[in-house]
Amino acid sequence: MTYSIVARDPGSGELGVAVQSHWFSVGPIVPWAAPGVGAVATQANAEVAYGPRVLSLLRGGAGAEQALAQLISEDPGAASRQVAVVDAAGGAAAHTGEACMAFAGHAVGRGVSCQANIMASERVWPAMLATFTGTTGSLTMRLLAALDAAELAGGDLRGRQSAAILVVPAEGETWSTVVSLRVEDHPDPLPELRRLVELHHAYRLAGRADELTGEERFDEAGELYRRAAELAPDNHELRFWAGLGAAQAGDLDAGVDQVRAAIAQHRGWRELLDRLSPRLAPSAAAVRARLDAAHE
Q1: Strands 112-116 and 2-8: what pairing?
Q2: Can you tell me the distance from the alpha carbon of 72 to that of 68, in angstroms, rounded to the nearest whole number?
Q3: What's the half-sphere exposure (Cβ side, CA atoms, 13 Å) at 50?
């Protein structure tokens, strides 16, 4: 009841899974990935245990084909399963059981597998693979492009409901992620997932700006806040910090305009402005003074 893609980026070593389904909250079911280990999609008559069990076998030295073959051989319900694996070396393998409901199938390439079941068209999974291999950019954006291609080829016969994306780095702690986002229930989940990915990118920039602020590298932080606000122009929190960053960089007029706009969207920012210390936000005093003068 799902289409998904598992893939490894040969340049960055990132591993990822992206999925869409007409099923509530597909995110906790289908996608599994671990840094430097691999990525797994388990769907159709999904057995969630395939995710952690395949990753465990990969950690133990098995490749994608070996790990998948072992679990399929041990599973009495394998005929109704659809599972795909990519390992940290770029090996990929997939299984579509003979009892999976048509249209169902998979397409495997180097470092990638696309799979789907109960599709409106048997063009879905080949279209996903062709789009992924023909698209440049980050792994995250290529995974999203593959999902969009599935929709253009007909998508899920039953329609749309939820989507998820999970991308992990080439190495790191088991909980490390590049992006981990879910759309649990939405009439058009893929545009919503893409919106969340863009917002996630904006907040990553803002998070790095927070770190730079703590190091008193205020000009660098201001530039990142500005870039974050540009990615999410309707977000009043990012607009507020971008305004303080602009003021710190020497453009007080633009900074005050940004902060004023943020306050107009949410009054709490005016009180927070009063609470900011010079050490945390050196430009806050000048912005406060300008706002106060405008009300005199």
Answers
A1: antiparallel
A2: 6
A3: 33
The single-letter code of the amino acid at 139 is L
pLDDT tens-place string over residues 8-51? 999 999 999 999 999 999 999 999 999 999 999 999 999 999 99
Alpha carbon distance 163, 181 (integer Å): 9
Distance CA 182, CA 192 (A): 9
Query: CA nearest 148: which of 33, 2, 20, 9?
Result: 20
User: How would you list the strands of the sheet with 38-44, edge to edge?
Assistant: 31-34, 38-44, 81-87, 92-96
For the entire predicted model, the pTM comes to 0.93
Low-confidence ranges of the chain (pLDDT < 50): none
- CA atoms within 13 Å, Cβ hemisphere of 277: 5
At 245 the three-state DSSP class reads helix
Task: Extract the tokens encoding 296.
Answer: 């005199």
Closest C-alpha among 188, 152, 146, 149 to residue 165: 146
